[in-house]
Amino acid sequence: MHQPIYQDKESGEFMAPWVYLHTIKDYSDMAAHLEAHPNAKAVVNFAPVLLEQIEEYLTQIEHWRHGGRAIADPLLAALVTDELPAPATPAFLKLVQMCLRANPDRIIHRFPHFSKLANLAHYYCDKPEVQMYMGEQFLADLLVWYHLGWMGEIVRRNNTIVRGLMEKGHQFSRQDRLALMDVIVEIMADVCPRYRKLAAKGQVELAVSPYAHPMLPLLLNLESAREAQPDITLPHATHYPGGRERAEWHLQRAQQVFKKFFGVESKGCWSSEGGLSQPVLELLSAQGFHWTASGDSVLYNSLGKARAQDPEALQKQVNGDGRPHAAIRFGDISLPTFFRDDGLSDLIGFNYSDWHAEDAVGDLIHHLENIARSADRKQPCVISIIMDGENAWEYYPENGVYFLDELYRRLDAHPSLNLTTFSNALGDGNGEAVQLPEVVAGSWIYGTFSTWIGDEDKNRAWDLLCEAKQHFDEVLKSGVLSTEQVEEATAQLAICEGSDWFWWFGDYNPPDTVSEFEHLYRRHLANLYALIQRPAPPHLYQKISKGGGAPARGGAMRHGHSEQER
Fold first, then answer.
1. Is this prediction's pTM over 0.90?
2. R_g (Cα) of the chain, nearest Å
3. What is the domain range of residue 388?
4. Which of 25, 104, 387, 443 keeps 20 to 30 A from 312, CA to CA?
């Protein structure tokens, strides 16, 4: 479960609505599926900045309810405002455009009322001459249907307010909109307690990522990108200043936030984007984590290096060229690492959404059974399916409800496949991990860091960050800031260090999304300069990336293996 920080800390405004929309749709539904199948088990990983943003939404809504300032998310604020912007104004047009940001087939056109409104909205956007003839009721209905469309499927089926609004269909009053806001608040307020309860029952193991989701291996050493891609072009900056201290800060702050929300520290850490290197494993072990995980391309790269160094030793460990489906320990680091089965995970992410649920689950179980039969009997067989908590499900009919229900039901009843968690897998006599000499640095995507560094645009973003960090260090060393100012600037620096900004830069991604994330990245950096009382360099405001691609799933998801490997 992960969303980057969309909030502009200077203004307080959320620049995109994805935190609360994915909370009411995906994080809520996933908890409901687990609650409906008490024998199912899963590991659920939270990025701390997601937890804090959910809390910030709830705080802002509570202040608004008691007469305070408006909610600082334009879409959510519009849902409950008593006076919508006038037709033909830029504010009206912007809200209409925002209400079209949903999967057309699975969300918009699934609902006849929403579909008609969306068709009118497209006509409205394309025909300026008709805009003055639209009314506020059109926008009010569009706002309600947008939020109904993004609602979790389990909520949609069981919540009487949601069902009543859907039956009404149109002419929604402000009281209707306020009632829908009450549902949204209830879902958001309940999501963390629900997962905490599932963890207390032993059904879910909760885990954490570094605080603001930075790419730890690159913070520690930009050159680590060469381990999997020797010819990669790196930024002009040769290193990220003070990277180890920053990595430690992100991990320590992550545990503080995790304990605040869930009452305990996390045993496991999904290092952001499965980004691992030997120094990162050392750091995770030193911070007290019990396990971590990554993508299987990292494992294959590490197996290849071990095979080249000592094929006889590797033969004893993994029985030839086969992949060990077990925890792996690297060098003298005791921390075990699990590896995602990219093939199975990508089937769920990219293929099964167009299948009948029973056929998709049957196919997945067939693959699982084949892996289990062929696994090395010297080791317990642990097959790791690791997925985004949000991005796949909007491509499934009804938010994946049929697939997930069938999946948990079939696996619960299976005679030889058992759902478990990583800590349970290690504690159930499965602690004998395969030993390899060293991990080859990489991420879950292709086993490289090419999604975050190496492209000209991504490298420029790194140079901007490294430059800002140098200024940050100089100001802190001068002692001109108070303790409170240092803490605020340090938290802002963490936002800038998040991996998501680098993900979106480059020609691979769609222009509108690239523009949105670039604007937010430069805003975060400008806010950092303001907090350290330094003028932002003029080149910070020069365009970083244009985009231009049309990737699968809009670029929010990637395959674990490159096209050559698939």
1. yes
2. 24
3. 207-213+248-436
4. 443
